[in-house]
């Protein structure tokens, strides 16, 4: 798979950042789906990190990690290598010093390090780097006997703080809703009051941070944004974001055949896994074929699933793990927040197919296409172009993309906010609607805003006034004179 051992940066690669001794290149490989590439990590003097390459290969080909996830992970490992070489001078370390260096690396990422040219980053960003380094070094420990950098340890649940204990209980409750083997759960470690976690886990106290009002898109402008958007394609995309709750990249994987109109007039939108989702098509031999989407794309169009393209490829679109509605088929469906949104999508879909999609040659199956005249007309829509279209839509109603919540993911947060604070759905229901793999991802929407708390309190006071005397009314003697 590797035809060389050394790599020397030159003017045709890219400008190396200040204070770094590593570089990363995406290089195509012959294994896996055609068109796949891996991020190769080169150390100082151009030496290839075979350990990092083996780990990345295992993550992609065996565990099914996406290229975007792997690119971030390899970048984190490269930064850790920079820290070790430039701040620690590459000096040999005893086993008991490894965790200390990892903690120092986290602090350098979190608060910045002038000597490396690093700016301060968010807790979540620094913690993600620590997790990537921890996963990589654990894999090296398990496969090559290296000393563990951040080993896992077993602790009692009662030693955790109340929030962590509550989260564990919520996970156990949620599991009973879908796991057919939940009757075996009492024998698990968690049921016995034991959990396993990293010895150094800096994000532990921040995973359930409170949901803030300004994180979601302004509710009073949602319909206006959609109605003032002139493009049929963009209207459909916005409806999926706001009223379907999909992530920004998920519509980029939709096939034209994934949308159908149901008897009640609403649209049924299938979200199939880009690689593993079941699919049925007519092969070159005119016979019906059943397989997965990766096979269909390769056999009929010679294409690679977009989540497997290199992160810098213009057609790359990520795919985050989700709770599938149909695990056997590896697919889910969009759950419309409002039925009228589902019916509007159906009407616009029919018009889009008639006036745009059906007029294009059959060179790919993707639903959303480039409408601009030129060489790329009719080609799969780029995620970057859709982000720009979202920003233009916001600006039409006098909103700036710099405002909190005015971004594509803010639309998904609007969906979660509406489920939790307007419809007041149970958290388990919202988890299924949003296809969250973990209930912890849903929990942020159930931290009520100050305004919602105030309204609830006033409503409760009004009910109490009608139902019973006010037991806490101030005595007349304490009343202030007029």
* Shape-level CATH architecture of the largest domain: Orthogonal Bundle
Name of the CATH first level of the largest domain:
Mainly Alpha
> Roughly how much helix do the residues carry, as a percent range?
25-40%
N- to C-terminal distance: 88 Å
Poorly predicted runs of 5 or more residues:
1-16, 207-214
Architecture overview:
The protein is mainly alpha-helical. The chain folds into three domains: 122 residues, no CATH class; 47 residues, no CATH class; 224 residues, hpI Integrase, Chain A, CATH 1.10.443. 39% of the residues lie in helices and 9% in strands. The chain is built from 14 helices and nine strands. The strands form four sheets. The chain has a three-stranded antiparallel sheet. The chain has a two-stranded antiparallel ribbon with strand order 1-2. The protein has a two-stranded antiparallel sheet with strand order 3-4. A hairpin with an 8-residue loop joins strand 1 and strand 2. Helix 7 crosses helix 11. It is globular, with a radius of gyration of 26 Å. 30% of the residues are buried. The N terminus is likely disordered.
């Amino acid at each position: 798979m590797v035809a060389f051992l050394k790599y020397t940066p030159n003017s045709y690669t890219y400008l190396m950042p200040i204070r770094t001794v590593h570089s990363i290149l995406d290089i195509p490989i012959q294994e896996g789906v055609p068109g796949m590439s891996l991020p190769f990590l080169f150390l100082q003097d151009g030496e290839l990190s075979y350990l990092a390459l083996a780990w990345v290969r295992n993550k992609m080909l065996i565990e099914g990690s996406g290229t975007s996830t792997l690119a971030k992970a390899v970048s984190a490992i490269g930064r850790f290598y920079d820290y070790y070489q430039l701040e620690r001078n590459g000096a040999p370390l005893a086993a008991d010093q490894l965790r200390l260096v990892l903690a120092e690396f986290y602090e350098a990422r979190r608060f910045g390090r002038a000597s490396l040219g690093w700016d301060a980053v968010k807790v979540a960003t620094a913690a993600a780097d620590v997790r990537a380094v921890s996963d990589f070094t654990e894999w090296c420990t398990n496969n090559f006997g290296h000393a563990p950098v951040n080993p896992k340890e077993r602790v009692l649940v009662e030693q955790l703080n109340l929030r962590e204990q509550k989260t564990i209980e919520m996970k156990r409750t949620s599991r009973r809703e879908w796991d057919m083997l939940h009757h075996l759960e009492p024998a698990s470690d968690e049921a016995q009051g034991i959990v396993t976690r990293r010895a150094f886990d800096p994000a532990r106290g921040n995973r359930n941070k409170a949901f803030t009002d300004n994180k979601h898109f302004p509710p009073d402008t949602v319909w206006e944004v959609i109605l003032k958007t002139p493009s049929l394609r963009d209207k459909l995309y916005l409806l999926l974001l706001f009223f379907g709750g999909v992530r920004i990249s998920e519509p980029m994987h939709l096939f034209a055949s994934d949308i159908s109109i149901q008897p009640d007039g609403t649209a049924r939108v299938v979200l199939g896994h880009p690689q593993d989702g079941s699919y049925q098509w007519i092969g070159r031999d005119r016979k019906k074929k059943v397989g997965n989407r990766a096979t269909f794309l390769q056999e009929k169009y010679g294409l690679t699933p977009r989540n497997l393209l290199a992160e810098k490829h213009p057609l790359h679109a990520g795919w985050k793990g989700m709770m599938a509605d149909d695990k056997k088929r590896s697919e889910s469906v969009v759950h419309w927040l409002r039925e009228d949104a589902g019916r509007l999508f159906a009407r616009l879909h029919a018009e889009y197919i008639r006036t745009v999609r059906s007029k294009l040659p059959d060179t790919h199956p993707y639903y959303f296409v480039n409408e601009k005249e030129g060489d790329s007309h009719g080609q799969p829509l780029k995620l970057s172009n859709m982000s720009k279209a979202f920003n233009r839509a916001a600006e039409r109603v006098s909103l700036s993309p710099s405002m909190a919540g005015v971004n594509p993911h803010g639309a998904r947060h609007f969906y979660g906010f509406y489920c939790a604070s307007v419809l007041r759905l149970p958290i388990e229901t919202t988890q299924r609607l949003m296809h969250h793999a973990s209930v912890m991802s849903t929990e942020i929407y159930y931290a009520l805003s100050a305004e919602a708390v105030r309204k609830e309190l006033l409503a409760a006071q009004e009910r109490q006034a009608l139902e019973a005397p006010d037991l806490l009314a101030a005595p007349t003697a304490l009343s202030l004179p007029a």
